[in-house]
User: What shape does this take?
Amino acid sequence: MYGSGIQIPRIAFSTVDYAQIPANSFFFGFDLDNAGALSKMDNTGAVTVIEGAGGGGVVDTGSGTYSTYRICTSNNASGPYSTAFGYANSASGYGATVSGGYNNTVSSDLSTVSGGYGNTSSGYYSVVGGGAYNTALSDYSTSSGGYGNSAANLAATVSGGYGNSATGAGATISGGVANTTSGYYSVIGGGAFNSIQCQYSVIGGGFNNTASGYNGATIGGGINNTASGYNPSTVGGGFSNTASGGYSTVSGGYFNTSSAYYSTVSGGYGNVASGSYSTVSGGYDNAACAQCSTVSGGANNIVRGCGSAVVGGVDNTLGSCASCSIIGGGCFNTVTKELSFVGGGLCNCSCSTTSVISGGAFNTTCGDYSTVSGGYGNFADSLYGAILGGQCNNTCSFACATIVGSNICAVANCTLHANCLWLKDLPDDSALPLPAGTVYSCTAEGGRLYIA
Assistant: This one.
């Protein structure tokens, strides 16, 4: 072995009996006392570094077939065609590669760790680009860099960041901190503490957002948002919004909830769309509770009737029997029956079918097909009754009674009630004969009125 020139051993030169070396000859070897540097020793025990001075070491064949490693006490290339450079690295898979770094491990075939510290690539064709304590644990998985990231399912990818975990097949985390996705083919763009628990879902970024429905959930960003509908639900952004209905949407805002199929809250604060196909466009504490119901804006408005709408205002209510009805705006207005309308005003109440209150204050319709055009404190309780304005008028249950004026109580059906009539340009008796029921003046009697 000594000076044979046939095989260069790897040995700690301190263990060599240099007295056995012939005079004018040398013992050659990779000195493990000198970081594996190619060195020579003479018969006096003097050691001279030939190559790899300064701890650089040299490359030698490993224990695996056609494997290569940098000579040091800790590198190991035991897989066929494997490579291990750096320090304390291990390449044990077929064609496995550790390009550098410290304490990295590649244990599966055709996998790679490019560098860094404490990284592990254990899936077939898996890659860790660098960083520290990153893992690519499944076939075709990739952890590009960062710290403490894990790509732990088939074709999963973590591009970087800190403490991210992609455990769903084909899942991707682009970066950020402590993001997790277990859904197949799901994506987290970035942010922190975001979580996807369903397949085919996306969280763009933000903080502490959760996509937990069955599939296709989307959260654009924001804070503490949840998309949990069984079918694809969406939260665009904002704070503490929830889309829990199938195909439901919350575009943004704060503490909004869309909990029914195809329901939508566009924005605002504390709004709820809980009826299927319902919509709240914005505002504050509005609720669209019935199927196909709408609140366009305002505050504290509630729609419980199917196909009904509150356009705006404050504290307006459409009851559960008020289907296909509308409140345009105003404050504290109420509709309790179907096919009815309150345009606006204050404290108006439509309590009958197909009735109308255009505006005013404290007006009430209790007769079907009745109308109050405006005014104050008017009460239309008769079938087809109408109060055109004024104050404190009452149709007193007389059908088709009409009131023009104030403080009038109807006394007959199908009768116009008024405080006073002023008639202009009446025909006179020269125009006789006139249609029955026509009012005319008699010129011979100083304009006295008659009815034909």
In short: The radius of gyration is 44 Å. The chain has no helices and 52 strands.
